[in-house]
Amino acid sequence: DAVELVERGAAGPLIGLNRSRYLLLEFASGGIPSGTEAIFHELFLLGVTPVIAHPERSRFFAADPSRLEQLVLRGAVAQITAGSLLGDFGEAPLAACEDFLRRGLVQLVASDAHSLDRRPPRLAAARRYVRRSWGTESESGLFDANPQALIRSDSLPWAPFHSERGFGAEVAR
Description:
By secondary structure, the protein is an alpha/beta fold. The chain has helices spanning 2-11, 36-45, 59-63, 65-73, 82-85, 91-103, 123-134, 136-151; strands at 22-25, 49-53, 77-81, 108-110. Helix 1 (2-11) runs parallel beside helix 2 (36-45) and helix 7 packs across helix 8. The relative contact order is 0.13.
């Protein structure tokens, strides 16, 4: 429950990824709770940065990327899944990944690995895909600079482009 999350954060520190200020949050595929923007604001006031896990697998965000954009522009971090980027979850999540990347809404790529057999990490393949499709600067930001900053609880140093040219614009299309 989102209200309980904020109350717990006010009572004492929330434990984020690698004990950082970054808190991984996963939404149901059909939508986000009403008042999410206000809850994110409260988390920011507590020094916590929400990381939205695999928004590409959410019909809510995929159908209207401006909903994800509003959260990212307010300071949330979007983390897509390597397998989604490689088509492991089907065409819709892959298309959403591409759209989010093009719009400059993605700061991290994660494995979402559950095991080596059932859902392997696939990070190396995703890294190669990003390098080929979006360029070395995007690859370094998504797989090196931002993840390293996150585990140190630092500000993310690499930001994708927020312009009409979009994400990875250094790569000729």
